[in-house]
Amino acid sequence: MMRRSAVPALFSAALLAACSTAGDGDFPSLAPRPQEKLGFAEPEAPPAAPVAADPALDARIAAVARDRAAADTAFDAAATRAERAAARAGARGSDAWLDAQTAMGALDVARGQQRDAADALEELAAARAGALAPEYPPLTRALAAARAGIEAQTRRADAIAARLR
């Protein structure tokens, strides 16, 4: 019996002795490494290189701008007609109300022309992004103007439509 109790005691003593042995000192330091001292802030982006002028793209943007101007004119005329028709509209189903609904349909067609012009600009921007070309400021400005125009037209059309409900 004495032998059985001596084996675990010797095994435990051997484990404790292994834990207390001093190594050769090649353990890694727990101090922060140089990379860890840099922090987590994003590095500053390099300044953007100037974008070269693109005459072909400028010509296409100018053509779309002309289309947008024509669409704006058509929308303004259709919106004026729709506003007048909405002011004259009577009860639902009356002839005046149906005339106002028809004017709203013409207004939607005019809004579609503005969206078509904006879609053409979106396609130009998508093609440029697909080619990994840098952002082209005249195209960005034209897109912003087209989107703002669409939002303004939508607000005006919604206001007219609200009168017909």
From TrEMBL:
Residues 1-22 form the signal peptide. Residues 25-51 are annotated as: Disordered. The keyword Signal applies. Keywords: Signal. This is DUF4398 domain-containing protein. It comes from Sphingomonas corticis.
